[in-house]
Amino acid sequence: MTRAVAAIFLGLALLAPCAASGQKAAMSKPIVIGHRGASGYRPEHTLLSYELAIAQGVDFVEPDLVPTKDGVLVARHENNITETTDVADHPEFAARKTTKTIDGQPLTGWFTEDFTLAELKTLRAKERLPQLRAKNKAYDGKANILTLAEIIALAKARSAELRRTIGIYPETKHPSYFASIGLPLEERLVAQLKAAGWDRADAPVFIQSFEVDNLKKLHGLTRIRLIQLMDGAGGPADHAVASYAEMATPAGLKAVAAYAFGIGPNKDMIVPGDKPPTTLVADAHAAGLKLHPWTFRAENIFLPPSLRDGIDPAAHGHVDHAIARQLALGIDGFFTDFPDIGVAARDAYVAGRKP
Known about the structure:
This protein is an alpha/beta fold. The protein has one domain: TIM Barrel. Helices cover 30% and strands 13% of the residues. It has helices spanning 3-15, 47-55, 117-120, 148-162, 175-180, 186-195, 213-221, 244-247, 250-256, 280-286, 319-329, 339-350, and strands spanning 31-34, 60-61, 64-67, 73-75, 98-102, 105-109, 167-168, 171-172, 206-209, 225-230, 262-265, 290-291, 333-336. The strands form four sheets. A four-stranded parallel sheet has the order 7-2-1-13, covered by helices on one side. A four-stranded parallel sheet has the order 9-10-11-12. α11 crosses α12. The longest helix is centred in the middle third of the chain and has 15 residues, at 148-162. The radius of gyration is 20 Å and the shape is globular. Mean pLDDT is 93; it is low at 1-27.
């Protein structure tokens, strides 16, 4: 690398948006969020996955939260646990298979809200993407379903042990649906975070949601930083806004800034594949919002053609370059299934070097 190129990267690093005053030192550089832990290497939302993400240097681990029948918040990507647990192998639960309409979509399977925590604890987790992540199948059956309380305890214990702050980045899944069946998420989540001593803007926590009204409700319940998730298509399931595209306009972002600290856009909303970048980073920063895009994955199938290595969809391409490109555009953090790659790319960027 020439000195000129090195100087450019160093300049980009120095110009990267810093955290608001009063936040922890970990926020002074772009944060790395372990998406469902280190889900590229271990079954998602398991102790195995979160432990590995922490060992690989993440700043935050991300639990998606859904409730049990008895109102306990647990970490599952969806309340439909058919693909992520061995529930289908339990004859005692066969009669609980059902079809429900969630966010307007009919889904068939087994759902967390039909099980007590004690019942869920008898299940074992398995890899959600076995065709792409065949090696992860070796860990099927070796971990159970975690509660939010267990994840908080893990983050606190590892923070003390490693002498660095490890935060949590929970997502409220399908909040309007759960409110409609008498299992609202907001008060339960805020109460647990407050019990952990986390009720300040500088707490090592972000709360995220694809919906709007529950974030607005949370805004009135806690001082913890809130992140409005966005996708490249569709809109919030609570229909509070017509579309994510509308939310991503300068006017829409200004409205989001009234209740949220930042946005979590689909990464393709910032750099659409191999096309030139959009103005979303600049527009969000102009509205006073931080950006934490999702999700950087190493497999070819998730990468634009220019960053793939070969033609095998499961083979790993150059996700580090995808991350570096968006860091150079000014993102403030990012989600990744591969924390080791993400941390290395972030640290190279901060040091002013290409990955």
